[in-house]
Amino acid sequence: MPDHLLDHVRPYLDRSREERIAYIRAPRWIGHQVAKDSRRRLAELLSRPQSLRTHGLMLIGPYANGKTMIAERFAVEHLRNSSEQRVWIAQTREGAGLGHFYASILQALRAPGGDLWDVGRKAEQLDHLLATLKPRVLIFDEFHNALRGRARDVEAVFAFLRRIGRQYDISPVLIGEVAIYDFINATSEMASRFDLVAVPRWQYDENYLMLLDSLEAALPLARNSDLSNQPMARRIYSLSEGLIGEIVGIVTKAAVAAIKSGAERITKAGIDELHHIPISQRRNSALRESLL
């Protein structure tokens, strides 16, 4: 019996190769401590008492580190357990000014007319929707996109965030890069409205090794790969640069390759054969020249 696998994963060993590969490639939730803490903090926004000066959260960390998945998981769980939708996620559009920002929210609320050029009409439509739908938590993914304009445009966005708290009792959640933290903390007024939830890169420590063990247990390979063994763990960490999205991507590709080759286990040589290039090296001039 393959004791290295979770109970619900073992039956997949009897499935076809295509089914096993599809299962491995499917998105999966990884309930590490930072993710659990983030979910708890988000849940507190839903259960808080009504307020005229709502507090929000910043989920800040590097790209490819699971911030969006944390928010989406929270939103899906809320929908499953609630009779009405009180959590909405807006993908913040690139571009300066309230027009682009309003359009992001209108699109998230599935409203027509999100591409209207008239900012005033967008504002009226948005106010009507917020009053009707009564969201409790409004999550802005990649919020740093809204901070790339002129100072007055950024201040207008911040004024909107303050207003929806006062007028509609909405807690905003800002997800993205460290630039968000810098902008929010540039003034005491905005800093007092947002708490920080850091989603940092993983360190090479016991938590990281436990992450590898949990990944291995969730992948239907017939043989033990021993991912947390130091040489293997070090290699994955070096290639991933501590980003959970990269860690999962590397292990997933290696697992698929192990099934296709018949090896049924991930090896250090198999990982090397992926020719995975760390994110920090993808702008390497020598690598780029080799593509020409």
Explain what you see.
With 292 residues, the protein is an alpha/beta fold. The chain has 2 domains: 33-198, 3-Layer(aba) Sandwich (Rossmann fold); 218-290, no CATH class. The protein is 50% helix and 9% strand. Strands 2-3-4-1-5 form a 5-stranded parallel β-sheet, with helices on both faces. Strand 3 (137-141), helix 6 and strand 4 (171-176) form a beta-alpha-beta unit. The protein is elongated and about 60 Å long. The model has no long low-confidence stretch (mean pLDDT 92). Keywords: Plasmid.
And the CATH topology of the largest domain?
Rossmann fold
Major pleated sheet: 5 strands, parallel
| Sequence stretches where pLDDT stays below 50 over 5 or more residues | none
Head-to-tail CA distance between termini: 50 Å
What is the domain total for the residues? 2
Residue-averaged pLDDT: 92
Main sheet strand line-up: 2-3-4-1-5
What helical percentage do the residues reach? 40-55%
Shape: elongated
> What percent of residues are in strands?
5-15%
- Structural category is alpha/beta
Number of strands: 5
Keywords: Plasmid
Organism: Rhizobium jaguaris
Protein name: NTP-binding protein
Question: What would a concise description of this structure say?
Answer:
50% of the residues lie in helices and 9% in strands. By secondary structure, it is α/β, with parallel strands linked by helices.
